[in-house]
Amino acid sequence: MKNALENKIQKRINAFASALNEIISSYSNSLLELDKEVKESKSKVLEHLKDLGIVV
Questions:
Q1: CA 56 to CA 42: how far, in whole Å?
Q2: Which Enzyme Commission numbers does its entry carry (predicted)?
Q3: What 8-state DSSP symbol labels residue 8?
Q4: Buried b (16+ CB within 10 A) or exposed e, 2-30
């Protein structure tokens, strides 16, 4: 009985860890993509400001 309970607990822990890793993965990918988009947007804005003569 003790082994059965330990097995159930271990399965729950493994399922939780797996779900948590999946969430972490999805957010880290999104963060990298957002960072890339911000850098691209910043570059475009600076270029437009240069064209307007606001930034040298």
A1: 15
A2: 2.1.1.72
A3: H
A4: eeeeeeeeeeeeeeeeeeeeeeeeeeeee
Separation of alpha carbons 37 and 43, rounded Å: 10
Query: Residue 52 is encoded by which pair of tokens?
Result: 């307007």
Where are the chain's structural domains? 1-56
pTM (whole model) above 0.70: no
Report d(CA 48, CA 44) in Å as an integer. 6
Low-confidence residues of the chain, pLDDT below 70?
none
Distance CA(45)–CA(20), nearest Å, equals: 37
